[in-house]
């Protein structure tokens, strides 16, 4: 038998972010990433991924001053796009590997190339609310999240007559959506000098 391999990959990224906070009540953040990965063909190697988030601390508004039981109330929302870098080193290349024919060593075609491969992208949405009561003794958090993944790289079957051991070619054909709700609550039951009890 014979064998052996050599592989490498590279990743390059540029990122920028801007934050704005007005009177601890209004929050805005915007960001952008420009990522490049060697695992994709040269024409599709770089992707641009924006993101933004906003927040509003309602409890700091003047019309909330009469609600002494409410310590903090904030609503927030965010949207972001990200690219998946965990796609292997050479999913777009036509590859050869060691092979054996009868009693002879040699090489054989092992992967069909696809120079149209693109980034796997995720679009993430989050909407949330944070509340605290009784001088922050009781806290509650709610979130709705959504993650839409598109262009997932999956192996598409090829005819056995192609003679490729894996019988697949990599293409951006997959989609996946995850969504759900998250709740959390916390209560500070005892807060003394040398003893503190919190339940969440």
Strand content: over 45%
What is the number of helices?
Answer: 0
In terms of quaternary structure, the protein is: single chain
| Termini Cα gap | 59 Å
Q: What pattern of helices and strands is seen along the backbone?
A: EEEEEEEEEE
Number of strands: 10
Lateral arrangement of strands in the main beta sheet: 1-2-3-4-7-8-9-10
Protein model, in words:
With 200 residues, this protein is an all-beta fold. It has strands at residues 11-22, 26-37, 46-57, 70-83, 95-101, 104-111, 121-133, 138-157, 168-191, 196-199. The strands form 2 sheets. An 8-stranded antiparallel beta sheet has the order 1-2-3-4-7-8-9-10, with no helix packed on it. Strand 9 and strand 10 form a beta hairpin. The chain is elongated and about 85 Å long. It starts with 10 loop residues before the first strand and ends with a strand.
Secondary structure topology:
Blueprint: E1 11-22, E2 26-37, E3 46-57, E4 70-83, E5 95-101, E6 104-111, E7 121-133, E8 138-157, E9 168-191, E10 196-199
Antiparallel strand pairs: 1-2, 2-3, 3-4, 4-7, 5-6, 7-8, 8-9, 9-10
In short:
With 200 residues, the chain is mainly beta.
Task: Give a quick set of tags describing it.
two-stranded antiparallel sheet; 200 residues; mainly beta; 8-stranded antiparallel beta sheet
């Amino acid at each position: 038998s014979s064998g052996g391999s050599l592989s490498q990959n590279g990743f390059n990224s540029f990122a920028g972010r801007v934050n704005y906070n007005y009177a601890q009540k209004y929050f805005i953040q915007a960001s952008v990433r420009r990522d490049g990965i060697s695992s994709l063909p040269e024409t599709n190697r770089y992707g641009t991924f924006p993101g933004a988030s906003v927040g509003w601390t309602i409890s700091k508004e003047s019309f909330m001053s009469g609600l002494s039981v409410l310590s903090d109330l904030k609503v927030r929302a965010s949207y972001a796009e990200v690219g998946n870098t965990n796609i292997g080193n050479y999913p777009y290349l036509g590859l050869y590997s060691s092979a054996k024919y009868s009693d002879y060593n040699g090489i054989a075609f092992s992967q069909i190339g696809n120079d149209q491969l693109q980034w796997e992208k995720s679009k993430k949405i989050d909407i949330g609310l944070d509340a605290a009561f009784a001088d922050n003794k009781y806290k509650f958090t709610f979130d709705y999240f959504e993650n839409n993944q598109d262009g997932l790289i999956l192996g598409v079957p090829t005819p056995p007559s192609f003679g490729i051991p894996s019988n697949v070619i990599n293409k951006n054909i997959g989609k996946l959506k995850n969504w759900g709700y998250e709740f959390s609550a916390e209560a500070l039951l005892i807060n003394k000098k040398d003893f503190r009890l919190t339940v969440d």
